[in-house]
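Most newcomers find our protein records easier to grasp once they have seen one. To make this concrete, we reproduce a full record directly below:

===
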Amino acid sequence: MPTPSPLACAAAALLLGLTAATQQTADRQDAGSPPEPPIRVMLRARNGGADRLNPLRYIGGFETKTLLFETLVRRGEDGRLAPGLASRWEILDEGRAVRFELRDGARFHDGRPVTADIVRTHFRRWIGLPEHDWLACNQRITDVTVDSEREFTVHLDRPYALLGDLCAINPCAILGPGARDWEGEFQRPVGTGPFRFVAASDDGGRWQLAPTAGDGPLLEITLTARGRDTVPIEALRAGRIDAFVGGWDEDLPAAELDALAADERFVVETAPGSSVAYMSFRLDDGPTADVGVRRRIAAAIDRDRLVAEVEGGRAEPCTAWAAPSVGFWPRGRGRIRPPESAAVDAGAITLRIAAGRADSRTARLARAIAAQLEHAGFVVEVTAQPGARLPQATGADGVGTVRPLDEESGEVRRARGEEIRRRAEAADLRIQITHGVPYDPQRSLAARFGPRAGDNPDSPRPRGGVDPELMQLVAATMSQPDELARGPLYAAIQARLDREALIVPLYAPNRVALRTRDVDGIELGIDVYRVDLTGLHRVSR
């Protein structure tokens, strides 16, 4: 008997999901209550089938996956580590191991209990693979051992700040064994999150989810690509969706949001975000290698004006590495006084600012900052950042058909990113944005300022954008597993950033959700990759 193809298995899984959805509707009709139509929610992600809803793949959207999956630990509303699928943990062997205890009664959507052995198997599917090397623990974890049905220990090759890394939905969210067939092929998303997968449309552009607990409404998740556009607003006005929830680095046009907020049919909700837009400097060459020049630049920045001009007021001025919503991070110095030395003559200095992609937040910030610096007497050039040309290579699909690369191809996106980084590294000023909670403060700090392979922290000449003392401080946080014990190190890092004007924090953009007045119950937390729709409901009129 021939083995079914993966395509056939996927089709069968989809049919099973559609059958389940149909049966759920029938059960509600039998109970005497008419079925409610799903609440249609738009999220940011690239379209695709249910095979993309896998935490071991970097597509499918962060916000969609947080509806379906849980990480062992997460970030709470104050930004600190909090229980997730694991109810407690204990740091052992001076940080070379962490023992976890799973939440009592935790079950996957298919009813199977969550066990330590299942978690160990999930870790074995990603630890050591190069695509996960951006997460430093991928090179630190040596083993995961099972201590009991609900307890397991993660072993490391050295003391390391593991817990912050494990907040990453990809690849750390736990996938249930029911997601795979007997050959290990992924078939359907099965997690422990607040919603379970029901079905997908034929083109993968819509997914239907049902609440894991209770009898709340079904959700129909519609996807739209990331970028600065008016697609969510247009879809809401046209009646194609009931709500839109922005995710990381959401950048909707402020004027369009103002117009929507003035329309009585709709509601624009905002809440404090946790990503920080900031300005960094080239430290190894050029005028910004001089701390006096950096301080004069920092003193020229008007944050309130930037918030008004670039974000339409929907942001909070920020003076530190972490956003004001991350309550435990030490606050920055704020406005920096310019140096009194006459040696710093702004009019004799030409600065190059790297702009981002056309009409992106970073490009608009670059132009606004250039205007402020010119007002302070600097000569400023804003360097354009054109997209990289499409590589001429082609790829092959699963049956050997050669296809041309397009804008969604990983090769194209990587080439464009490398071109933007190359141009930015040659500029004196660069506009950047932190990843936000759960990656802020620690993971973003390590990625931006921590040591990399080949770095020499004792070198008197820093790698562009990082100075040796700051690198050493960040390296110390990476080897301190206890978040509370990192407090003095965080204070020393912020003091160093302030004293040497190594970066200029600007503001933290607000989180944004849009909805019709017919629905309510969206909760916007500071984790910009997480969407809480457990309270979403239709409003009785």
Observations:
- The radius of gyration is 25 Å.
- Residues 6-30 form the longest helix (25 residues).
- The chain has 14 helices and 23 strands.
